[in-house]
């Protein structure tokens, strides 16, 4: 198993380089880069810097010795454009910039945001608690509820319990996450009905003055609705996946043999069927975690006014803040690849008969 882990770890490096190379190449052909954003700001042609902090805006305005005299201008001095290129590192060839970026990222040096006057690492760490809260709790709740429910549905296949729970699951799967989030806000967060949960933020304003138990309660009070909204689609998928997987295993010959030997139904289900049926469910764990952690966070964070990595990535893409874009892409890609390796290790943990040493990679 050790040799397989080493091979997988070695494959992470070229995979990450490939991901970064593809995205870096695509960015070269996307109009409206950082320099164009600054020029648009100077000429008063847009509000692309609306979300930039005061320190970041001051940094931009200080480029070229102050940009106020260029406001409304149709042409800018070449010297000013050259200074912008030096400031953003665009005075170097793309290949040199890409290799320099890889070398820095290998040392986890992601540089500083173009427009926020803060390092990318500090910026990500600042937003990380929100995304970790959404991703971790949503995935955990989805698995804790979906697996027992899926097993129960498989055992009671065709019964009234299976029918009405399937109806609820289909309805939950059909409702878009953002629509369900809005519904939760309207019903329980001061909309037209009840005001049981806070409307925004991860904690209350007086969080620091609360007792340890009060801090825990306040945290879960704030995160309850966002987690529920982000869990709904994963919950439906996992439940049906677990049920179908168990149904396939229950119909196999070894289950009939185990029952013929006089084993109890619980022994058959959890001693024999569970190990085989859970393989496909565990295989989907990285996809579920990554999709909740990265994919669905933007809409949920926006609706519930949570300042997490989803909004950070969106704002960075809009403002063409390349250090933030590529830095977060590198970290997210690394996490996704590591999660794939963890999934394989969980395969072996669930079923020791699986041997990845003999598998060619």
Automatic annotation (TrEMBL):
Residues 128-347 form the ABC transmembrane type-1 domain. One of its GO terms (biological process) is transmembrane transport. One of its GO terms (cellular component) is plasma membrane. CDD domains: TM_PBP2. Keywords: Cell inner membrane, Cell membrane, Membrane, Transmembrane, Transmembrane helix, Transport. InterPro entries: MetI-like, MetI-like_sf. The keyword Transmembrane applies. The keyword Cell inner membrane applies. It is a multi-pass membrane protein. The chain crosses the membrane at residues 9-30, 130-149, 170-194, 219-242, 277-304, 324-350. Pfam families: BPD_transp_1. It is found in: Cell inner membrane; Cell membrane. Belongs to the binding-protein-dependent transport system permease family. This is Microcin C ABC transporter permease YejB. It comes from Qingshengfaniella alkalisoli.
């Amino acid at each position: 198993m050790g040799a397989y882990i080493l091979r997988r770890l070695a494959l992470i490096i070229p995979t990450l380089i490939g991901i970064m190379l593809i995205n870096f190449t695509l960015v070269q052909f996307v109009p409206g880069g950082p320099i164009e954003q600054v020029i648009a700001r100077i000429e008063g042609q847009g509000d692309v810097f609306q979300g930039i902090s005061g320190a970041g805006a001051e940094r931009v305005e200080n480029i070229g010795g102050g940009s106020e005299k260029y406001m409304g201008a149709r042409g800018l001095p070449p010297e000013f454009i050259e200074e912008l290129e030096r400031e953003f590192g665009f005075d170097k060839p793309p290949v040199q910039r890409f290799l320099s970026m890889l070398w820095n990222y290998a040392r986890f040096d992601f540089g500083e945001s173009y427009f926020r006057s803060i390092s990318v690492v500090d910026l990500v760490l600042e937003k990380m608690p929100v995304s970790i809260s959404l991703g971790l709790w949503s995935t955990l709740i989805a698995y804790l509820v979906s697996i027992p429910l899926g097993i129960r549905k498989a055992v009671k296949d065709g019964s009234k319990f299976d029918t009405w729970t399937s109806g609820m699951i289909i309805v939950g799967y059909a409702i878009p996450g953002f629509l369900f989030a809005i519904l939760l806000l309207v019903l329980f967060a001061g909309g037209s009905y009840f005001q049981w949960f806070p409307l925004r933020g991860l904690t209350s304003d007086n969080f620091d003055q609360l007792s340890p138990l009060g801090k825990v309660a306040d945290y879960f009070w704030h995160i309850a609705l966002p987690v529920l909204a982000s869990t709904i689609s994963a919950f439906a998928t996992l439940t049906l996946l677990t049920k179908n997987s168990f149904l396939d295993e229950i119909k196999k010959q070894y289950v009939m043999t185990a029952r013929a030997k006089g084993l109890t139904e619980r022994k058959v289900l959890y001693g024999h069927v569970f190990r085989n049926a859970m393989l496909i469910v565990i295989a989907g764990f990285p996809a579920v975690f990554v999709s909740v952690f990265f994919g669905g966070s933007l809409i949920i964070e926006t609706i519930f006014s949570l300042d997490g990595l989803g909004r950070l990535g969106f704002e960075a893409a809009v403002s063409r803040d390349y250090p933030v874009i590529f830095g977060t892409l590198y970290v997210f890609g690394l996490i996704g690849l590591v999660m794939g390796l963890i999934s394989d290790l969980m395969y072996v943990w669930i079923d020791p008969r699986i041997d990845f040493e003999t598998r060619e990679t």
